[in-house]
Amino acid sequence: MEFLDKLPQAALDFMEGRKLDEVECIVADLSGIARGKAMPAAKFEKQKHFYLPNSIFLQSINGDWVDDADAPFTEPDMVLVPDFETATAAPWTADCTLQVIHDVLDQKGEMVPVAPRNVLKRVVQLYHAQGWDPIVAPEMEFFLVARNTDPNQPVEPPIGRTGRRAAQRQAYSMSAVDEYGPIIDDIYDFAEAQGLEIDGILQEGGAGQIEMNLRHGDPVKLADEMFYFKRLIREAALRHDCFATFMAKPIQDEPGSAMHIHHSVVDINTGENIFSNPDGSESEAFLHFIAGLQNHLASTIAIHAPYVNSYRRYVRDFAAPINLEWGRDNRTTGLRVPISGPEARRIENRLPGMDVNPYLSIAASLACGYLGLIERREPRAEYVGDAYDSADGIPETLGSALDLLEGATQMQDVLGKDFVRVYTTVKRAENEAYLQVISPWEREHLLLNV
User: Fold this and answer.
1) Which family does it belong to (predicted)?
2) Which one of 94, 123, 306, 391 counts the least CB within 10 Å of its CB?
């Protein structure tokens, strides 16, 4: 097979001594769901590309199709071209299967502007045009939960090896992580088979809540890895009769799950971190980047908190930010400067939830920092103390967040007007669908009392 010469070493190692049976040709839709086709390896070898309708980016999380007001609904085909650098194993399958993320082009060979991976590439290219190379390091939080086959029933933690459900408020407990050792072992094994590197795994504050840290690197590559990680973590959990969920707030009275993004920027020519001066002090660029986050993050909350459930995470004192303040080593601020040496100086955006599409959330966060570097404005004074006392600037509902995104002309210029139009249209449809649902709380407290 000619394409084997183009594969990463991890994929070749996975196939060693085995016959490749199938290739999954996938892209991420607006929600981050893997869409595409699976085909026999022999057929994949003969095709340079294949087609999918553009309607995959017009489908809501609840399965409805949304009309794009600026284009008739004719479902023209897009051209999907394999990016062989992303080829990786699907180690949970019974046969020998590879996954390959594809570039999404129109029939003229141009990048489709609403494809999430293309949105991120667009933002990264803006940095490169200025001689900058953005670096990110994401953190992934998720819950392991008991199988929940009835949506009307609350989500519960799973049973661990002791035969008991996960204990609450056991952050950083090694015994809490050990409760789900077999699942963690499979996550490590799947990641190794896929050539994905894990920086560390720990118990977070919620019952059955895990945090996984990834190494820093190229934004597109890291977003690809997070796209893969979500799938492999779900598969590892299913092997042990439980679910992994990336919902922002799956369990009442428990903390939510975040996708914190650590940002730094290096000079392409020198490789030096532009957030630090030669003497090791904080640079003006560092403060400008922070100002960009402060000034523009509110307009991108609809991307960092993409569902109605996302806003349940923004709760005071539940280890989630409710502000756009910044501070050094202060986890109550939405923007945190971790302890580091000058070469690793960075800013952590704590606003995104783990329910995001990683391509879009990283793109939106980078877009804010890019505008800050271009505008060269100063941030507000560092917040010292408990920033939960400063709940300023975060929209409280998906509808109000979409209003801000639709009115943010600078952000639309960076992310792309076509993308913002389609994204907000789909999200408004999801919000309207949610408003048609009557919740148990309403039936309990309003049915007979009002």
Assistant:
1) Belongs to the glutamine synthetase family.
2) 94
Residue 167: what pLDDT? 66
Measured CA to CA, the distance from residue 164 to residue 345 in angstroms comes to: 42
Domain that holds residue 208: 124-444
Same domain membership, residue 175 and residue 274: yes
Provide the CATH number for the domain around residue 205. 3.30.590.10
- pTM over the 0.85 mark: yes
Kindly state whether residues 53 and 151 are assigned to the same domain. no
How far, in Å, CA of 295 to CA of 369, rounded?
9
- pLDDT tens digit sequence for 255-273: 999 999 999 999 999 999 9
The residue among 34, 29, 10 whose CA lies nearest residue 91 is: 10
Alpha helices by DSSP H, listed for 151-307, are 174-178, 181-194, 219-238, 284-296, 301-304
Pair (152, 103) in one structural domain: no
Phi, psi values for residue 251, rounded to 5°: -125, 125
Pairing outcome for strands 335-337 and 347-349: antiparallel
| CATH code, domain with 31 | 3.10.20.70
Q: Do 64 and 141 sit in the same domain of this protein?
A: no
Q: Is residue 91 part of a domain?
A: yes
Per DSSP, helices labelled H in 356-439 are 358-375, 398-406, 409-415, 417-435
Give the chain's domain count. 2
**Tokens (6 digits) for 410:** 């600078």
Task: Verify that 23 and 154 share a domain, yes or no.
Answer: no
The answer to whether residue 1 is domain-embedded is: no
Same domain for 173 and 284?
yes
- In this structure, is residue 225 part of a structural domain? yes
Please report, for residues 99, 116, 273, 374, the alpha-carbon distance to residue 288 in angstroms, rounded to integers and kept in the order given. 39, 26, 14, 8
- Count of alpha carbons within 13 angstroms of residue 40, beta-carbon side: 3
* 298-325 tens-digit pLDDT: 999 999 999 999 999 998 766 678 899 9
Question: Could you tell me if residue 46 is left (phi over 0), alpha (psi between -120 and 50 degrees) or otherwise beta?
Answer: alpha
State the pLDDT confidence band at 181, using cuts at 50, 70 and 90: confident
Average pLDDT over residues 374-396: 88
Question: Residue 323 and residue 355: Cα distance in Å, rounded?
Answer: 19
292 shares its domain with 167: yes
Q: Tens digits of per-residue pLDDT, 46-62?
A: 888 899 999 999 999 99
**Hey, how many other C-beta atoms are within 10 angstroms of the C-beta on 135?**
18
For tokens 């005071």, the residue is: 316
Rounded CA separation 367/262 (Å): 14
